[in-house]
Design a protein that fits this description.
Number of helices: 24
Helix content: over 70%
Strand content: 5-15%
Largest sheet: 5 strands, mixed
Shape: elongated
Structural class: alpha+beta
Distance between the termini: 90 Å
Length: 703
Amino acid sequence: MKRLLLLLCCIYSHFGQAQSPKEPLQTLRREAAAIGKSMANGAAVADEKVRQRLIVLHQQAVAAGSVEDEMQILNLLANEYFIMGQLRESAQVQQKLILLAKKHDDSLSVSSHLMDLGRLYFNEEKFSAALNLYMEALRLRERYGARKSSIALVYTHIGRVYAQLNDLQAAEKYLQKAYQIKAEAKDTIALGMIHVSMAEVYRRAKKYELAEKNFQRDIPKRLQNNNLEGVMECYRGLTDLYTDWKKYDQAVYFCEQNLRLARQLNRKRVEGRLMLRLANLYEKQNNPQKANELYQKMGLKVGQIHSLPLQRDTYQKLSTLNARAGNFEAAYQYLQRVNALNDSIMDENSQKLLSELRAKFEVEQKEHEIAELDRQNKAQEQQRKLLLLGIATLSLLALGVIYLNISRRKAFQKLAQEQRQTQQLLTEKEQLLQNLHHTQLHLVQSEKMASLGLLTAGVAHELNNPIGYINASVSALKMDFLELNPVRIKLLALEQSQNLTQDVQAILDDLEKMDATYLFEEMGKLMQSIENGTQRTTEIVAGLRTFSRDTGDAYLPAYLHEGIDSALTLLNHKRNEKLLIHKNYGDLPPVSCQFSKINQVFLNLLDNAIQAVGEAGEIFIQTWQEGQFACVAIRDTGKGMDEATQKRVFEPFFTTKEVGKGTGLGLSISYAIVQQHRGSIEVSSQPNVGTTFTIKLPIAQTN
């Protein structure tokens, strides 16, 4: 589809040219860029119309006098000739490009066109000529400072040629140098080319498993990117590999796949070579019928292929087949064609040798010109030295100015140092103020807790007396009720008697109207409720007294379980029936501590746990003795914390609660209290799992 759109663009541009004698360069460049893009994806189809359009565009570029556009279009034309299998025409265009690049002293462009020309020789299996061109391209790139990635590309092609020449040691050396550069640059496309080249080295070294792995390594990626030329190169290597490995079925499969791709891309020259190769594989499979059919097809279309060696090999094979079949006249005619093609190939090789000698002469002449330039540069260097001597004299006169500048710079440096010291003092002052503010907030929080303790103690004391009265009264009332109950039972029993006085009958009637049985049962329930309420209130008052017990700064023995229970009592209003608390108390001895401060720690941790769990969940409290330490673990099934939050959870003013619901001081103060007791507090949490705070306090404090 892309190729069809490109052809429509070319036809549209052609008709546009008929209307406008001189097409603008901008339009020409856009069209050339579109053709170049279609060739760059590795799936370009050979097309005569594209070749003709490129010739027209080249003429327009020459007429416009734009050498840059001319060279760009010539490069596209050479590539199109290569795709069409017309390697001789492609080589002629590349030679023209080399001359243009030399004319403009663009050595790196010369190097690029030498590489393209070397590719043509490589495909014609003229490996020595290709190696000479690659070596010259490498010399130019190294001499004129080309990028490392560009030099690595030349290393890759040199390694490929050495592999074809069976110099495997040299091939591996150049490929390893290329791999190191491309691996550092993470150039996956170039690494794929190196993998295929290394596979060829392994094939020739008879390391067939390694070769197979490297040939197949990049096929999926190349198919995904529609790089069909790259896929064909891998299939060609696998065909050679399985032929050497004598796995002819696999070799035939990949050769047939390659032939399908060549026909898809309209690569006549490649198609001819693959047909010849496939026929040879059919012979190795002992399938002469298929081989002969393929040779006959080759004989019909080989004249359309621009490859003299391919035509010669095809006619040679057809001559042999006809001789075997007894058709000696046809065999003789094919043999005459073979001899004529051999003469043409020899003439072509001679012309090629002459061209190479001419190119070598031009290179030597260029080197002579470079040597002359070096001599002129040395003369200019002498003049430069004299000029530097004059500059040195002037520099002596400028030393005074430099000395003044240095003195001024020192003064500025001294001033800058004083400014830095002042800034450091200001920073230290700000840090001191921040620490003071932190300490002040700790004191305020401690005062609040002390005031809360006093208030709680006062409330507990004031509540204790009325609760005592109620408790004592309800006990007495219950005893009176129990004493009256037998009388009620006897009166009810009199209802069955027939000899009742009028007064007794009136009392029984009044009892029946009041429903005495129901009233006595209701009074029993009410007295039991009052007794349960007074007992619960007594427990709360006891918890308040325990929590508010102020031990001051003295370390006194205390039972940690009492502190935990009192904290739970104070937080009871924040709980609901869906929040379950599990207590697993171990056997702990009295712990020497400032009990009111330790209670504050328990209150903070349990309050955080209740808030983390929310409306439903569980809190687990466990205590145990570990050596000389009393340990308390409070675990909740709340939302948990990530690692970053855990690292900051004990920092002052750090909080994850909403604004107005926390100051960020609770855990900071708890941490300070535990540290003051020479203990430790640790946190372990996972998001959406829960959080565990573990406190370790020494059972006995030492001075």
